[in-house]
């Protein structure tokens, strides 16, 4: 790939992102109030779990702080993915309405043109995930369960998690080139799988935990790295394995996307 062309594509991508952000910030008061209210609603989701844990204690040996860590890492990884590539999750409307045809005419890769469309700011999710992560890590640091290196490792885990979630989303969206309708499938591969992986996989039957590790690898977003980082049950090699899973997932999903787009048939609208 020509380096100058890549820089040109990235500049265009940045321009599209800035244009979308400016349009979203036209009504700043509504944006701020909506963000705060959404953050409160999102935090209440975890508070319900925390109240139950406070009443009955740990679940399968996982403390409320450890489950909070899993919850926050998944939330922040999802936030990064959906901030920069939310329209990948909404590819169906481009396929049904024929809007993908317009992107095919742009002088840049279709995926790069798709990602900044209606760029989505998600400050509520950042507030929610950041608050719960700070609370969980801070509590575990005070008890000596983890050290300061856990902060750096967590940033790495969140980034690799975002790559894995993006890859799952992209692979699912690519199936739309054959099926057109993909929302029901996304409910399984993205929404249900991600929600299940917000909690320890030991809560689920073995077949389901295996599914969430090997078929839809959301377990590598937070659960597997946390076994080492929080509980010391496996070695540091699990972080390298997690990075390897992220690389394999992104490589495979991009190859699948490139193949899938050759099968695209315009609606003619």
Provide keyphrases for this structure:
269 residues, mainly alpha, 13 helices, globular, transmembrane helix, transmembrane, ABC-2 family transporter protein
Please render the helix and strand layout as text.
Layout: H1 3-24, H2 28-56, H3 64-89, H4 91-97, H5 100-104, H6 110-114, H7 123-142, H8 149-174, H9 176-179, H10 183-196, H11 206-215, H12 223-229, H13 237-261
Keywords: Membrane, Transmembrane, Transmembrane helix
InterPro entries: ABC-2_transporter-like (IPR010390)
Protein name: ABC-2 family transporter protein
Can you walk me through this structure?
- There is one protein chain.
- With 269 residues, the protein is mainly alpha-helical.
- It has one domain (3-261).
- Helices cover 74% and strands 0% of the residues.
- It has helices spanning 3-24, 28-56, 64-89, 91-97, 100-104, 110-114, 123-142, 149-174, 176-179, 183-196, 206-215, 223-229, 237-261.
- α8 (149-174) packs parallel to α13.
- The longest helix is centred in the N-terminal third of the chain and has 29 residues, at 28-56.
- The model has no long low-confidence stretch (mean pLDDT 85).
What is this structure, in a nutshell?
It holds the Pfam family ABC2_membrane_6. The chain has 269 residues and is mainly α.
């Amino acid at each position: 790939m020509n380096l100058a062309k890549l820089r040109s594509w990235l500049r265009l991508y940045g321009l599209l992102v800035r244009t979308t952000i400016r349009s979203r910030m036209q009504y700043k008061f509504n944006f701020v109030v909506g963000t705060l209210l959404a953050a409160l609603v999102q935090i209440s989701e975890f508070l319900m779990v925390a109240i139950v844990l406070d009443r009955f204690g740990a679940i399968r040996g996982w403390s409320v702080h450890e489950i909070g860590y899993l919850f926050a890492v998944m939330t922040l990884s999802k936030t990064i993915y959906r901030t920069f590539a939310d329209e990948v999750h909404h590819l169906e409307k481009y396929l049904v309405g024929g809007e993908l045809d317009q992107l095919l005419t742009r002088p840049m890769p279709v995926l790069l043109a798709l990602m900044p469309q209606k760029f989505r700011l998600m400050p509520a999710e950042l507030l929610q995930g950041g608050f719960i992560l700070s609370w969980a890590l801070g509590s575990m640091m005070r008890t000596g369960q983890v050290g300061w290196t856990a902060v750096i490792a967590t940033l790495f885990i969140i980034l690799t998690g975002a790559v894995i979630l993006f890859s799952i989303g992209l692979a699912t969206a690519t199936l739309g080139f054959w099926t057109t309708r993909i929302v029901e499938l996304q409910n399984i591969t993205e929404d249900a799988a991600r929600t299940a992986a917000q909690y320890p996989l030991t809560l689920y039957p073995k077949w389901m935990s295996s599914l969430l590790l090997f078929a839809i690898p959301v377990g590598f977003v937070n659960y597997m790295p946390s076994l080492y980082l929080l509980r010391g049950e496996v070695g540091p090699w699990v972080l390298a394995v997690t990075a390897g899973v992220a690389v394999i997932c992104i490589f495979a999903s991009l190859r699948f996307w490139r193949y899938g787009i050759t099968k695209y048939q315009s609606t003619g609208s």
